[in-house]
Amino acid sequence: MSKVNKGNLSEVLELMEYVLDNNSYLRGKINKKDIGSSVNKESIEKSIKEVSDKSVKEILKKELGNFDKKRGNELGKRYGRLLFSDNVLEKMGWKKKV
Fold it and tell me: Do 89 and 42 share a structural domain?
C-alpha cells in the first residue's frame, strides 16, 4: 500500500486545524482529553545509543519497532471517536466493544 502524498497530507492536516479552530464543540471535547504517553521515538533512539547493557538495548529496540503501532492505537482510542466514522474505528480496531 502506498503512503499518502505529502501535499495531500499537508492539506488534510490544514483541514484538521481549520475545523478545530472553527468548531468550539470539537475543540472543547479534544481539550478535555488527557495527554497520553510522553515517550517519543527520539527518546527511545537516544536511549538505545546511550545504554551499554545488551539485554536492555534489545528491549528498547523491540519497543522502538512497535512504537508506531502502539502510539497509533493510543491516539486512535483517545481521539478516534471524535474524528472518524464507526467504519474507520472498526477497521482500525479502535471501536469499543459493547
Answer: yes
Collapse the DSSP code of 36 into the 3-class scheme (helix H, G, I; strand E, B; otherwise coil) and give the result. coil
Q: Which domain holds residue 53?
A: 37-98
CB 27 within 8 A of CB 20: yes
What is the value of pTM for the model shown? 0.75
Which residues have a Cβ under 8 Å from the Cβ of 4 and sit 6 or more positions away? 12
State whether 48 and 86 are in the same domain.
Answer: yes
Measured CA to CA, the distance from residue 20 to residue 23 in angstroms comes to: 5
- Average pLDDT for runs of 10 along the chain of length 98: 88 95 95 86 94 94 93 92 93 82
18 and 53, same domain (yes or no): no
- If one counts the domains in the chain, the total is 2
